[in-house]
């Protein structure tokens, strides 16, 4: 009898003391996320975070400023403008698929699509536009896709990320899955995205200076010297996965779109700097 | 002389017990493939498991049963570990969140 009462008291005490799991709150997350980086890099102007490693490492910045005399992504900008302005076989254009004719809208992607309950990235929207106009989707990691997103990003330069999470439980769930993907360790090396871009931000990993996660997608697409070519966010995600010895997911996999949604929301207020260049 | 003969016989028996047979190697390879398929479905697969499985397949084709068995064992262990990592991280990731 005494034992049973004691157990009842213990169970009651435990249930009173157990703190309920906090409800997901993207805005609270964003404020904490940005404060972390503003505190870690007190001398970096907030709008500079879109410049990745060049914002936090002076010698690299100097080299970058010299590279930017002749930006290596310029041929992609020309190709992107030409592709964007060319009509589809049905006579319609990319501009018919986007708000404001596609001008200055990159900072609002990714978006949550209330019809499908899915996250739509800019790259995904470009391919959806093609398919809806009877064209084949473009390969997602480089080539014309990178050129079109470069052209569209340039029209958004200086505009701060403005990602919305609508009051829809599916949007919040997608955000939470993206957050989990960012912080969960993966691959045989056991690295999370956060291992390099939060804990390791600004540090050197072999020959690279690791970019802070804040604003990390603002410069995409990028011309990467290591690739010798332009690459999209998908290209970066798949190569990051492989570097941790995780089998990369297919480009535009739901998990990649969701982590892009999470990271872009975390960067709300940080200006678009793309297209960019990286070592 | 008698002791030496017994030792030699013992060694021969051990060696034959340790040598992998074709069915052993193939069974382990299938087990590793199944485990890796589950890891992929859970988006938890490792590139090292994939390359080790591919090497095991090559050894099977070359009828090198010992080598195939050893590689398949390794691939199986890697696939199991990758799935265990994904299970652990389902809760552990929350400890890393910036708050």
Q: How would you characterize this protein structure?
A:
The complex is a heterodimer of chains A (279) and B (99). Chain A has 279 residues and is mainly α. Chain A has one domain: Cytochrome Bc1 Complex, Chain D, domain 2, CATH 1.10.760.10. Chain A is 45% helix and 7% strand. Chain A contains 11 helices and 7 strands. Chain A has helices spanning 2-17, 26-40, 53-56, 58-67, 74-85, 122-132, 144-154, 169-183, 193-199, 233-243, 254-266, and strands spanning 111-113, 118-120, 204-205, 208-209, 222-224, 229-231, 276-278. In chain A, the strands form 3 sheets. In chain A, strands 6-5-7 form a 3-stranded mixed β-sheet. In chain A, helix 5 packs across helix 7 (144-154) and helix 8 (169-183) packs across helix 11 (254-266). The radius of gyration of chain A is 21 Å and the shape is globular. The relative contact order of chain A is 0.17. Chain B is an all-alpha fold and 99 residues long. Chain B has one domain (20-96). Chain B has 4 helices and no strands. Chain B has helices at 2-18, 22-41, 47-61, 65-92. In chain B, helix 2 runs antiparallel to helix 3 (47-61), helix 2 (22-41) runs parallel beside helix 4 and helix 3 runs antiparallel to helix 4. Chain B starts with a helix and ends in a 7-residue tail after the last helix. The relative contact order of chain B is 0.15. The model of chain B is unreliable at 11-16 (pLDDT under 50).
Set down the secondary structure blueprint.
The complex is a heterodimer of chains A (279) and B (99).
Chain A: H1 2-17, H2 26-40, H3 53-56, H4 58-67, H5 74-85, E1 111-113, E2 118-120, H6 122-132, H7 144-154, H8 169-183, H9 193-199, E3 204-205, E4 208-209, E5 222-224, E6 229-231, H10 233-243, H11 254-266, E7 276-278
Parallel strand pairs in A: 5-7
Antiparallel strand pairs in A: 1-2, 3-4, 5-6
Helix pairs in contact in A: 5-7, 8-11
Chain B: H1 2-18, H2 22-41, H3 47-61, H4 65-92
Helix pairs in contact in B: 2-3, 2-4, 3-4
């Amino acid at each position: 009898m005494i034992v049973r009462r004691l157990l009842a008291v213990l169970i009651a005490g435990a249930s009173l003391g157990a703190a309920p799991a906090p409800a997901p709150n993207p805005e609270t997350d964003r404020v904490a996320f940005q404060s972390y980086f503003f505190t870690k890099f007190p001398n970096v102007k907030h709008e500079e975070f879109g410049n990745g490693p060049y914002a936090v490492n002076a010698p690299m910045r100097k080299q970058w400023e010299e590279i930017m005399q002749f930006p290596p992504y310029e041929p992609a900008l020309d190709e992107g403008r030409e592709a964007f302005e060319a009509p589809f076989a049905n006579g319609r254009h990319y501009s018919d698929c986007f708000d404001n004719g596609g001008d200055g809208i990159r900072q609002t992607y990714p978006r949550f699509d209330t019809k499908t309950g899915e996250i739509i990235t800019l790259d995904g929207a470009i391919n959806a536009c093609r398919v809806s106009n009877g064209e084949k989707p473009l390969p997602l990691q480089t080539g014309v896709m990178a050129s079109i997103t470069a052209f569209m990003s340039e029209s958004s330069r200086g505009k701060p990320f403005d990602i919305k999470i609508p009051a829809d439980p599916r949007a919040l769930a997608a955000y939470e899955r993206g957050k989990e993907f960012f912080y969960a360790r993966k691959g045989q090396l056991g690295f999370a995205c956060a291992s390099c871009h939060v804990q390791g931000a600004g540090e050197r990993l072999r020959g690279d200076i690791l970019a802070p996660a804040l604003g990390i997608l603002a410069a995409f697409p990028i011309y990467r010297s290591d690739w010798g070519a332009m690459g999209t966010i998908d290209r970066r995600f798949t190569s990051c996965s492989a570097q941790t010895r995780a089998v990369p997911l297919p480009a535009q996999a739901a998990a990649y779109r969701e982590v892009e949604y999470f990271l872009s929301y975390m960067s709300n207020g940080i200006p678009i700097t793309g297209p960019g260049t990286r070592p | 002389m008698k002791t030496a003969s017994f030792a030699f016989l013992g060694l021969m028996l051990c060696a034959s017990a340790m040598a992998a047979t074709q069915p052993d190697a193939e069974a382990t390879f299938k087990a590793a493939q199944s485990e890796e398929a589950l890891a992929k479905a859970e988006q938890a697969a490792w590139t090292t498991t994939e390359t080790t499985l591919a090497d095991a397949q090559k050894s099977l084709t070359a009828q090198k049963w010992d080598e195939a068995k050893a590689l398949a064992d390794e691939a199986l262990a890697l696939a199991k570990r990758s799935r265990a990592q994904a299970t652990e991280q389902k809760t552990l990731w929350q400890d890393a969140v910036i708050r």
